[in-house]
Amino acid sequence: MFIPIEVVFGFGAMASYGLADFLAKNVVEDYGPIRALKRTLFIGTFAVFAYSIFFVSIPTTFMNGLVFGLLAGFAGAVGWGSFYKALGQGRVSVVSPIASSWGIVTFVLALIVLSEKITFTQIVLSLTIFLGVFLVSLNWKEVVTAFSKRLESGAALALLAMVSFGVYGVLAKFVVDAMGVFYTVVFTRMVTLAFLFLIPSEPIKKGKTDSLFFLLVIVGFLDVLGFLSFNAGLSVGLVSIVSAVTSAAPLVAVILAHMFLKERLHLYQYAGMLLIIVGFVGLALLS
User: Which residues contact 231 (CB under 8 A, 6 or more apart)?
Assistant: First the structure.
């Protein structure tokens, strides 16, 4: 059985992002979300930069991607900044399902802006994954509670994060074509970090971060591995398909939380998992 290469790379990005999100829980709690984000991005970016300098030649078309690289980096900064700001204003159960739906923005923009041609079956299977991601990320009971108490102020920022991440997915395609997989990661993340450093970090909890530094490094490497896999998918396949598969990262985090943290899953989350699996298998067999 031949599995399309963009599905393979998308699956790799999904697994890396999902595992990073799961492991980042303790890091975020002790370092603070903004500080943890900056450090994980820096660690991963530095590692790819060091590798690229010695082993990856700078493409002759590098300069052609500068404008799109700046825009992509800025979109990433807006996405992360608004996402964490949203978490501070609203509940995770409201913010997470919205922000996790970034893939559908990339999907639609890829069809419109990039004029990608996909079959009706691929559209249905991709939408199946997006619906599954939304259900897996959802905690309906807390959503009802949040809105009944008028705590939905983070929803608007979560929408901004969703759109920003989605726009990044399309812009990254132009950058990858010009800069290559590795230097796209280096350049866009350096731009993102430059903007994020304008946001003040939270105070560190004394005595707790030393033991978590190794975990912080692991999260940084997993996160950048996800970026590399996503970019590799963009370099060889359809943005719409890569984004659909990659956006299912919450599935990995939710399953791991259920297995190791004994977090309870609801029936609609199981339904979401089933939809994602159906979408994956369909794209692997029918693409």
Answer: 172, 176, 181, 184, 185
How many Cβ atoms sit within 10 Å of the Cβ of residue 268? 14
Question: CA distances (Å), 285 to each of 55, 91, 225, 277, 279, in order?
Answer: 35, 38, 25, 12, 10
Between CA 40 and CA 221 the distance in angstroms is 8
Token pair of 77 as six digits: 């900064």
CA dist., res. 248 & res. 282, Å (int): 14
Lowest-pLDDT range of 42-46, 143-147, 186-190, 240-244? 143-147
Give the tens place of pLDDT for each residue, 158-209: 899 999 999 999 999 999 999 999 999 999 999 999 999 998 887 766 555 5
Do 219 and 68 touch, CB atoms closer than 8 A? no
Largest CA distance in the chain: 56
Structure tokens at 129: 């994954």
Alpha helices in 90-153 (DSSP H): 92-99, 102-112, 120-137, 140-148
Q: Which residues contact 98 (CB under 8 A, 6 or more apart)?
A: 155, 158, 159, 161, 162
C-alpha distances out from residue 146 to 137, 138, 156, 225, 267, Å: 15, 13, 14, 35, 20
What does the block give as tokens for 206?
A: 């004394």
Rg (the chain; Cα; Å): 18
**Cα dihedral 272, 257, 192, 174 sign:** negative
Enter the tokens of residue 265: 């899953």
Closest CA to 101 of 54, 137, 76: 137
- pTM of the predicted structure, to 2 decimals: 0.91
Distance of CA 41 to the CA centre of its chain: 13
| Cβ atoms of residues 251 and 109 within 8 Å | no
